C-alpha cells in the first residue's frame, strides 16, 4: 500500500492518503504478504503487482470524465451465513454504487460481506473466486465499457452457504476445525457468482444517478494494543512471519494502522485494515448519520481478524466522516 501510494501520488498528484487499496480476498492466489516479507523469493511478482496497480490508477486519472452517481440497496442474506453462529446476523445487505455518463452506466461498485473461499485447498489454479466470476458478468450484462468492482464488506465470520441453498448450510462440513472441509470447485464459484450477479443487476437497474454533491477523504491513524507475547508468537507463526518480523512484533506494545473514509455523493466507503466480524460492520453502519455507509474490509493493511469478542469500535465523536 505504501509503495503504490507513493508512486501513484508522485505520478498523478493525488494525495497519498486519499488512495484506497481494496482487494478482494482469495484462497487461490499468490501470498503477497509472504512476498513482502521474503522480497528475494519472487521479486518479479511483487514488482509487477505494484506497477500494475499504479498504472491502473494513472490510467483512470488520465481518462477522468464528468459523471453522475447513485446508490442502491439489495438483499443477499439467503446466500451467506455467520460461520461462528448461524443464528447471528451475517449482514446480508448488498450495496451498489452506479456511475453514469450521459445516462449510460460506466461503473458499478458492489459490496457484500462474504469470504470468497469457495475454491478449496485442492485447487492449484490462480483465481479470484466468486468476485472473479461476478465482475466480468456484470460488465458484459450492462454493456461495453462498464467497469465492475467488488468491495469486500466485513467478512470475518461470514461464509457463502453450500449449494443447494436451502436449507441453509455452511460451506464447511465440520465447524469444529478447518479440516476436513468441503469448499468447492469452479462450478460452485459460477453458481454463487450467478446469484450475486442477479441481485447486483436488479439493484443497479433501479438506481437513479445525479450529480455528485459530496467528494471527500479522511485517513485516521489507529493504534491497536497487542496481545500477550505468546499470543503474538502464535499470530506470527500463523502468518508465516520471519524470525526478524516476529522479533519486531514482540518489541512493540501496539500495532499502528489506519481507518480511511471516502465520501462519494451520499455514500461513504469506510476502509478497515483487516477482516472485521459482521457485527462490527453493522455497529459502524448504525453510527453513521446522513450518509449511506459501505464497509470495505481487508483495505490498505492486513491486521487479520478483528473479532467482536475482543473489539469495541466507536466512531470519533469530534470528527465528521
What does this structure look like?
31% of the residues lie in helices and 24% in strands. It contains eight helices and 13 strands. The chain has helices at 2-12, 32-37, 43-62, 129-142, 186-206, 229-238, 243-250, 278-287; strands spanning 68-75, 80-82, 93-101, 104-112, 147-152, 158-160, 210-211, 215-225, 254-264, 267-271, 275-276, 292-296, 305-306. The strands form four sheets. A five-stranded mixed β-sheet has the order 5-4-3-1-7. A four-stranded mixed β-sheet has the order 8-9-10-12, covered by helices on one side. Strand 3 (93-101) and strand 4 form a beta hairpin. The longest helix is centred in the middle third of the chain and has 21 residues, at 186-206. It is globular.
Describe the SSE topology:
Blueprint: H1 2-12, H2 32-37, H3 43-62, E1 68-75, E2 80-82, E3 93-101, E4 104-112, H4 129-142, E5 147-152, E6 158-160, H5 186-206, E7 210-211, E8 215-225, H6 229-238, H7 243-250, E9 254-264, E10 267-271, E11 275-276, H8 278-287, E12 292-296, E13 305-306
Helix pairs in contact: 1-3, 4-5, 6-7
Spell out the key features of this protein:
four-stranded mixed sheet, 321 residues, 24% strand, five-stranded mixed sheet, 13 strands, alpha/beta
Number of helices: 8
Strand content is 15-25%
**Overall form:** globular
For the report, how would you describe the main beta sheet?
A: 5 strands, mixed
Q: Give the integer mean of the pLDDT values.
A: 88
Q: Tell me roughly what share of residues is in helical segments.
A: 25-40%
Rg over CA atoms? 20 Å
Structural class: alpha/beta
Low-confidence stretches: 310-321
Strand order of the largest sheet: 5-4-3-1-7
Q: How far apart lie the N and C ends?
A: 22 Å
Instruction: State the total count of DSSP E strands.
Output: 13
Write the H/E string, N to C. Answer: HHHEEEEHEEHEEHHEEEHEE
Amino acid at each position: 500500500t505504501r509503495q503504490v501510494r507513493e508512486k501513484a501520488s508522485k505520478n498523478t498528484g493525488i494525495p497519498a492518503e486519499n488512495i484506497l487499496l481494496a482487494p478482494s480476498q482469495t484462497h487461490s492466489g499468490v501470498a503477497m504478504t509472504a512476498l513482502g516479507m521474503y522480497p528475494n523469493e519472487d521479486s518479479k511478482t511483487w514488482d509487477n503487482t505494484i506497477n500494475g496497480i499504479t498504472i491502473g490508477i494513472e490510467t483512470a486519472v488520465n481518462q477522468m470524465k464528468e459523471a453522475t452517481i447513485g446508490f442502491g440497496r439489495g438483499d443477499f442474506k439467503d446466500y451467506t451465513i455467520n460461520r461462528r453462529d448461524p443464528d447471528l446476523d451475517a449482514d446480508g445487505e448488498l450495496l451498489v454504487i452506479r456511475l453514469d455518463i450521459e445516462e449510460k452506466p460506466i461503473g458499478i461498485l458492489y459490496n457484500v460481506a462474504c469470504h470468497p473461499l469457495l475454491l478449496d485447498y485442492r485447487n492449484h489454479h490462480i483465481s479470484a473466486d466468486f468476485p472473479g466470476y461476478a465482475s466480468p458478468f456484470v460488465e458484459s450484462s450492462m454493456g461495453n465499457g462498464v467497469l465492475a468492482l467488488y468491495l469486500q464488506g466485513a467478512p470475518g465470520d461470514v461464509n457463502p452457504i453450500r449449494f443447494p441453498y436451502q436449507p441453509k448450510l455452511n460451506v464447511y462440513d465440520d465447524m469444529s476445525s478447518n479440516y476436513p472441509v468441503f469448499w468447492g470447485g469452479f462450478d460452485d464459484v459460477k453458481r454463487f457468482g450467478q446469484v450475486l450477479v442477479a441481485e447486483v443487476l436488479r439493484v443497479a437497474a433501479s438506481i437513479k444517478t445525479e450529480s455528485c454533491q459530496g467528494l471527500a477523504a479522511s485517513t485516521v491513524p489507529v493504534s491497536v494494543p497487542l496481545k500477550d507475547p505468546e499470543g503474538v508468537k502464535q499470530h506470527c507463526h500463523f502468518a508465516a512471519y520471519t524470525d526478524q518480523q516476529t522479533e519486531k512484533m514482540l518489541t512493540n506494545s501496539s500495532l499502528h494502522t489506519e481507518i480511511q473514509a471516502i465520501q462519494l455523493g451520499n455514500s461513504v466507503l469506510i476502509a478497515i485494515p483487516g477482516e472485521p466480524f459482521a457485527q462490527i460492520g453493522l455497529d459502524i453502519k448504525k453510527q453513521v448519520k446522513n450518509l449511506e455507509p459501505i464497509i470495505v474490509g481487508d483495505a490498505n493493511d492486513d491486521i487479520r481478524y478483528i473479532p467482536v469478542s475482543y473489539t469495541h469500535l466507536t466512531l470519533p465523536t469530534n470528527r465528521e466522516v
